[in-house]
Every structure is written in C-alpha cells, then in structure tokens.
C-alpha cells in the first residue's frame, strides 16, 4: 500500500475535500516535491501550506506512522528537514533527530485506484492494461514511446561503458566485443562476449592481411579447434579433409607466439540452433569482416546513412565454410551471407547503440541524433512481443517503436511496475 501512497502523492490524486493533518490543521499541497529514489526522504523540496504558513522541505511517506521508528529515522539527521509525514495509518506520533515533530497527514487512497491497481498486478492475461490502450491520445502514446526508446538506449550505453572499462578504456575493443555479443543472436550472446574479450586485437592486427591466420586465431580462441569439440560422427571426415589439421597446426604456432589461451569450447550451445547460427559460421563471418577492415569503430562512425551501415557490416563466410556448417559436415555451397533480418538486428543492437554511446562520450549530439534517425528509418522488429502490442492497439511502424515496446515489456510489464508506467497511470485514474 505504501507504493500506492507514493503514487497518489506524486500525481496528486488526492480524495476530494479539504486535507487536514492529525491536529486539525489545514494542509494545502502547493508542490509535492521531487521524487527521491535513493536514500533519504521520499520527496525533496516540497511546498506545503499548513494553515496560513508556507513550508518548504521534504516529505516522508509510510504505510504506518510507526514505520518511522522501524526505519530509525528518529536517529538520522537526513530526516530533520521533513515538514510533512504522509501515512496510511497514524498509529503513533513521531519526532526527528532534533526533537521536532513534523505534521502528520493521513492520506486515503481512493478506492477506485486501489481496485484498478489490484487489477493490474493480479490479472493473468497480458498485458492487463490492454482495455485502455485504444483510448489513449496520440500525444500520450508518442511521448511514452519516445521516453522508452531513450531509456533503452541509455541502458545499452551503460552496458557499452562497462565494456569500455573492462577493455582498459579502449572504445575500439569495446565495439568489437559488442558486435561479437550480438553475433550470438541471443542464445550464444554470453559465449561470444567472453570469446571477444579473449581476442588480442593488437596481436591479430599483425596478421590482418592473412584471412586464414585471422580465422585460425578466431576459431582457436573459441575452443573450436579441439578435436573433442567436434561431434564424433564428423571427426574422421574432418581429419581426412585436412583443413582442420592445417588450422590446428597454425594455431599451435600462433598460440605460442602470442601466449594465447582459448575459452572452453563446451560453452557454445547448439541445441535448437539453426545451422546458419552455429558459432563456426558466425565466427567465420566475423573473421572476414575483420580481415576486410570493416569491424572497426572508425569505419562505423563514418556511416551517414542506413545503407552505408549495411554495407559496412555486410559479410559472408570464408571459403571452407561455404560448404560446411561444422568441421567434417558438408553442406550445399553457399556464401552464407548475413540475412537482411540478421543485419537489421545488428544495426539495431550494435551499430545504433554505439553511435549513441560514443556520442555521449564525446559530447557530440550529432552522433546521438543520428542514432534516433536510424531507428526511425529501420524496419520494426517482428516477434511475439511486438505482435502482442499491435493486437492491443499500439502501432509498430519502425525500429524505434519496436525497441520502445520491448523496453516496456521487459522493464515494466514483466516486473509489474505499473506505477512507473504512463499507460498504468492512465489505467489507474480512468
């Protein structure tokens, strides 16, 4: 119930009628204050008129007044400036560390808001607010979608920033790790990120002009050159072909030269994975991309259009993998290029967040603006989440919309955090 009290106070959804504290003094809320999500009072710099005197200070909210003591606020100087204690039940009087007694207001949550809140958190069908979505104004929907889109980019920016730290401040290396992670397309994302962090790009750069050596280091560091990593039914054919043996011998030399240590090949997942997503294929594509000098951050930042980004990140496999999905397992010959759908996902999840994050790092608004422009130009993702929102009445016109709706499901619906959602707000006050 305390969450609802926060919500009612923040949005001023007070019951009709004059407000009075437990001493009978009139309470007028001029400004509820700034919501504080960190340690300290719940709302900062509120403006409260008590009888005829204006007070400027903080507001603390509790389900029961006695929670003030349960949380030890009476010994915490941070609560000395509380001018109003808002509670659901006034079971005790409270005092601050200085001995002052802040005014206490018993705030009733309107019954309709309680009912609507319970509907949102208890309803099994998904999303529970679907009934109100068709009735929302275009302005409300547009504003919320824009905020969600930015929030998602901010989260991805933080993930990239953390990779930069792990890469000793190298944005170039962090970009390669981000690109590699998204080559996992979900199921092998963690393994690809670990693999990329284990690639010594400075050492590989000495062999960039030799595609075979680049691929050898990439495959070797993935632990995929170990004979034990090859399914037993393909081992004899793999050894007979000679390509695996040649690569093993070359990796043994490069491993000693650069003091390389591969990751555990058992980290890679193949169950229910389409052959075009096998790590061998994705790593071969990355090897060619790197060999062609198209996996660098500077090449990406030079892109001014979606077409240029597509051309930069487009790639295919190395010759051996045109007829294989695994060592020793043959397949019809194909260049195995990135599909348009895969390419779009790489642009959405790698290229665009890098523009936004690097723009923030350099304080270049132009790069950040370019990220939003690209999202509007790219085709929306199609999956069960976007289809669900479309069925509820939300339009999904471009990648910016689909990213916003993925954020809405992950960060609000899945967590039942309806009190922070603007659609939830409209539902509660309907």
Task: Please give a structural write-up.
The structure is a single chain. Helix content is 49%, strand content 11%. It is of the alpha+beta class. Strands 1, 2, 3, 4, 5, 6 and 7 form a seven-stranded mixed beta sheet that branches. It has a two-stranded antiparallel ribbon with strand order 8-9. Helix 4 (138-166) crosses helix 14 (340-362), helix 4 crosses helix 17 (399-413) and helix 8 (211-221) packs across helix 10 (243-258). It is elongated and about 90 Å long. The relative contact order is 0.10.
Overview features:
430 residues, alpha+beta, seven-stranded mixed β-sheet, 18 helices, elongated
- Give the fraction of residues assigned to helices: 40-55%
Rg, nearest Å: 29 Å
Q: State the end-to-end distance.
A: 19 Å
Question: What overall geometry do the principal axes of the alpha carbons give?
Answer: elongated
Total beta strands: 9
What is the makeup of the main sheet? 7 strands, mixed
């Amino acid at each position: 119930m305390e969450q609802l009290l926060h919500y009612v106070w923040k949005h001023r959804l007070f019951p009709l009628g004059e407000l009075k504290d437990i001493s009978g003094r009139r309470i007028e809320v001029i400004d509820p204050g700034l919501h504080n999500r960190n340690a300290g009072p719940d709302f900062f710099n509120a403006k409260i008129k008590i009888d005829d005197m204006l007070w400027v200070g903080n507001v603390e909210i509790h389900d029961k007044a006695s929670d003030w003591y349960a949380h030890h606020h009476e010994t915490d100087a941070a609560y000395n400036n509380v001018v109003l204690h808002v509670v659901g039940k006034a079971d005790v009087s409270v005092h601050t560390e200085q001995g002052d007694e802040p005014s206490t207001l018993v705030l009733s949550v309107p019954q309709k808001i309680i009912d609507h809140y319970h509907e949102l958190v208890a309803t099994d069908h998904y999303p529970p607010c679907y009934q109100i979505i068709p009735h929302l104004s275009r302005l409300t929907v547009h504003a919320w979608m824009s905020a969600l889109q930015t929030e998602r980019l901010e989260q991805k920016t933080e993930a990239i920033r953390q990779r930069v730290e792990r890469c000793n401040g190298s944005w170039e290396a962090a970009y390669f790790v981000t690109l590699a992670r998204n080559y996992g397309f979900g199921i092998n994302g963690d393994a690809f990120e670990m693999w990329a962090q284990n690639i010594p790009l400075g050492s590989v750069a000495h062999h960039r002009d030799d595609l075979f050596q680049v691929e050898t280091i990439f495959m070797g560091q993935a632990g995929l050159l170990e004979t034990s990593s090859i399914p037993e039914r393909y081992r004899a054919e793999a050894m007979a072909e000679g390509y695996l043996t040649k690569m093993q011998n070359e990796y043994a030399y490069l491993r000693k030269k650069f003091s390389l240590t591969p990751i555990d090949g058992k980290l890679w997942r193949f169950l229910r994975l389409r052959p075009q997503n096998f790590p061998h294929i994705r790593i071969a594509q990355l090897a060619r991309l790197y060999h062609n000098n198209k996996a660098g951050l500077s090449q990406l930042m030079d892109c001014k259009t979606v077409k240029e980004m597509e051309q930069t990140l487009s790639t295919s496999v190395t010759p051996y993998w045109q007829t294989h999905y695994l060592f020793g397992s043959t397949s019809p010959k194909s260049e195995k290029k990135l599909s348009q759908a895969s390419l779009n996902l790489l642009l959405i999840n790698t290229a665009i967040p890098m523009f936004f994050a690097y723009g923030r790092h350099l304080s270049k608004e132009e790069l950040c603006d370019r990220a939003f422009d690209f999202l509007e130009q790219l085709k929306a993702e199609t999956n069960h989440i976007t289809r669900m929102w479309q069925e509820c009445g939300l339009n999904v016109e471009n990648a910016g919309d689909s990213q916003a709706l993925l954020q809405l499901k992950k960060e609000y619906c899945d967590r039942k955090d309806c009190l922070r959602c603007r659609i939830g707000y409209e539902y509660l006050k309907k």
